[in-house]
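Figure S4 source data
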Amino acid sequence: MKNLIYIFSILIILSCSSDPEIDTNLLDSVEILDSSLLNPENYLVSAKYPNPTEEEKNKKVIIAVHGFSASTFEWDELRRFIENRNIDTVLLSQVLLGGHGRSYEEFKASSYEDWQESIKAEYDKLIALGFTDITLVGSSTGCPLILDLLNIKYFGKELKEVFLIDPIIVPSDKMLSIVGVAGPILGYVESDLSEGEEKYWYKYRPYETLKELNSLIIKVRKQLEDNLGIGDVKMTVYKSLKDDAADPVSAVLLYKGIKTNYGKINVEMIDSDLHVFTRLDLRPTVSEKDKSNQFKVFADITNFAYIR
């Protein structure tokens, strides 16, 4: 009890206003928009191929889903991996989560159901256009968003495989569990971004969105406790051993809680201390091991290891 009183006291002291003062150089401002909003054809297969050929319809389409407070930038390196190696059997859709990549106010007003809408919209458009081979790739919060849709059987037979990178099922920061109580006092949380990241991630995270995140992961944990069946969909989970956002026990819960017609899902623990270890751009330091980890997962996702 004394610890809770201490925490709340600190929050009150730190809280000076319900909303931050936002610099125009931040993604939080109304001055910066995610590039996918300006040029969707460069990010979404459905926009780039409104009239696909039969050959294009049979290619593997990857729908890449970024994490909480992030943007399509989180998957730019996967796009470069595909382009630089001329992997012509794969097409990539980088979806922007609803409420993200716009302004602080739009982010603040969004629910996790809003975040899911872009995933559903791109999948539905691809199916309507006749694409037959879909893969979902999620990072961090993108993972429970995908899992929640799998739970309600949203996707059809066209979904063949799912890859989850550093899924947040159990947060490393246990303060998230009391955000409903502490959030209104604090108003928002300021994230620690490296130079350049402020254009692609929200610096200020409203407590309303943190509350939505907490509700989402609690919901998905319950789905896993009840056994989440995904039928004929293959799933691979990659989880950093050290992660300041998603507790490694998240991988254990997924392994125990997901049932497929192929048996247990594949879980690989990665020797990394990065959250979303597949994103290396703008990191303060990047090791050769980090590069190797990224290459291995990108090769798995695109089947590059088998076609080169």
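Figure S5 source data
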Amino acid sequence: MNVRNCRKCGRIYNYVVGPNICPSCREKMEAKFSEVKEFVRENKGANIPEISEHCDIETSQIQQWIREERLVFAEDSPLGIECEGCGTMIKTGRYCDKCKAALTQGFNPTSKKEKSQRKTDPRENPKMRFL
């Protein structure tokens, strides 16, 4: 049993998965998210500080929802957040398309070119290992 204190209200609860907040605070946060979502739908030109002030929620929480891709700015909106990689303005997420592609390429340990240049020793049996 994993027991923790809620980082919002301080109550003790049984932690299962997700953010470090109790179930009642999680329900309140989801209600706030619904309120923010409705406000954004009705006021498409509103920026983050206006949303924060009207809905009585921290700007950091709104930015977290945008980074988690739960909230998205409209394509025609001049608003956005900065890409964590290069700093260009994006509508949702953490990285722009170029930085996502670069990160994806970074996870590939060897390219096709390197694989074709690799020489294999015919005496080496790939199924046998000697220590």
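Residues 22-106 form one domain. The CA atoms of residues 83 and 95 lie 5 Å apart.
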